[in-house]
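Final report, Chapter 2: Outcomes

The project's central promise was a pipeline that accepts a single protein chain and returns its three-dimensional structure in a standardized token representation, suitable for archiving and comparison. That pipeline is now operational. To close this chapter, we reproduce one record exactly as it appears in the project archive, with the input sequence first and the structure output second.
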Amino acid sequence: MTRHPANPLPPIVAAVHELVETRVLPIASALEQADSYPHDLVAEMRALGLFGALVPRQYGGLGLDVTTYATVIEELCRGWMSLAGVINSHTMAALIVLHHGTEEQRARLLPRFASGEARGGLCLTEPHAGSDVQAIRTVARRDGDRYLISGSKMFVTNGREGNTFALLALTDPKASPPHKGMSCFIVEKGAAGLQVVKSIAKLGYKGVDTAELLFENFPCPARNLVGGIEGRGFKHVMSGLETGRINIAARAVGVAQAALNDAARAAAGLGEPPPTLADMATRVEAARLVTYWAAAMKDRGERCDLEAGIAKLYASEAAQDVAAAAMRLEGPAGQLASGLVERLYRDTPLMIIGEGTNEIQRTIICKNLLDRYGERPGALTSRERLDAERKQMVLAVRQLVDKEIIPLAHEGESSGHEPMPLMRKLAELGLLGALIPATHGGLDLDLATYSMIIEELARGWMLPAALAAAHTAAGHVLARFGPGELRERWLPPMTRGEQWGGLVLTGAVAARPADGAWILDGAAPLVDNAGRAELLIVLARGDDDEPAAFVVERGARGLALSEPRHTLGGHGLAPCDVTLDAVRAVGGMDAATELRSLTRLGLAATAVGVAQAAFEVALRYSQQRSAFGKPICQHQAIQLKLADMAARVTASRALTDRAAERLGADPADDAGAIMARLDAAETAYMVSLEAMRIHGGYGYTKEFPVERYYRDAARLLTAPPDAEGDRRELARRWSAGAGR
């Protein structure tokens, strides 16, 4: 798990971590290869109280919140995914009783679930009914004070070892729609009429029993009808899917983390760790953040069916990709049964299938998006949990974007509109001094609010977002590291938008001391806004080959700029090639790490904004455009794309938010910013391309903004700091253990 030292593990998670390290990891492979039920480990989990993890304390459980429970599941799956299966299905059965049972049922059953005396599972799937739960055929017929249950249930986790199951059956087979005739029962082994037909052999997920159960007039007491009223079972079962999908996501994170750790150990033996290790680490961190985002919503009592679905989709696909990448990295040795990766490679497909296949999940996500947002902007960008001041600031920017920036963007792109009048409006809101201290006229915002503002600007037009991000980074470095005289002279006019700052982060620039100042020599290509900037922050290397930051003012002798260069994306940034020939500079500031991190954060927020814009126009267009007699949003191919786009944007936003949080706590903690920048740039490219596919030919024309988003994504993929250099650095850290 990625956790800041100031935030220690909750006691139960620490206990599970210890269990995994000392008891699970040493024997998991042997048990898994033998497909042997882990009786001793299950007993230890029972002793820790994990069978009552989500059962309230008043019924003998631990009373954990969903976030802590998800962390427990992640830890277990880092050791062996099958262990999570033992308690997940059990917990889902207990939750059905907790949330929908009568008080008598809660008092009678929950203490037994919590202690592990009742070992639970779910009897939902049937040979002909998987994701389509309404297609079940199992029937429960009332017979006095009992029901007689007949039917077959498939893929029942704990089916052989368990003894108490939540079962969905038809009490009114003629009901229309069918779900109105479904009821949920708590069935307990012991009476005749229940047969474990077979344990199902599986690709992975071994050790935990998965069985087919056959019910033939099996008697179930009427008092075990959940809630005491027929016809409500479908809702009872569906209500648990949010927690179930969060659990699947947490499982996926744990398995992905195990694959990443194993790949990092293998990479440590290579001369240069492959950059793919950075991609794996980024995917795992994104999956974790999205999972706990959904879990936190569940804990707050908010509706999170959409968010839980996105978490399940993203995390399970990430686990699959990371496990496959680990096997590729390890080569032929990765297939050895004596190793770990081949087991993870076999386990990961289950998360893609469990709690509804990802293909079905994508259609559900898309339908939820359409129902919740329709054609309105702002999908998945709720700012409701911000405090009043921050919310007012972000919403003021959103209003400016919707009313002025978006209408101007198309015209500005096509006509080469000078952006400075627009930037002065940002200055009026104080945004150009977002990170400058109030003593110099700035807003002194936290980095999380700053990144939200940059995202909002980029949603309207990348140009003002990129200009503001570079200018703000220059002002921030000057405020943090610059000499007092420079701060007093430059920061107030920079805050007001009267003077502009730019960044020189690439190229080969050397610095040498001379007469109490510094002399810079070298060149840097494609410096954004260089022709308008009155002040440049230049990264250069001295004799020790360590980068430092220097201040160069416009008009300095030896400073030369080329004519603005035309680029594919980022029109209006007017990048120039910069040449420095014995240019006198002020500085030698130890600000390189912080400057690069802040630049990466700005790039990530900008990329999320571009991706969000592309996603929103695609979602809106899919409802307006019809093909074959219906809106294209009703075609499954489009639904699959929209769901993937939503998941990618959500993950990149989570990484960006987390990067801002980490940098705010420790400016030297740049790993989060590296991850966010790498992921968000790729997301902007992927989502803009998918938006173009959804628009078809219109997306390729200048009449629609999609082609601009696609062009701007290219700029985000290639902007400094060097993305490939970032990937190599992150891979080196993970290989050395420093990234964990």
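Archive annotation: Confidence is low (pLDDT under 50) at residues 1-6.
This record, like all others produced under the grant, will remain available to the consortium after the project formally closes.
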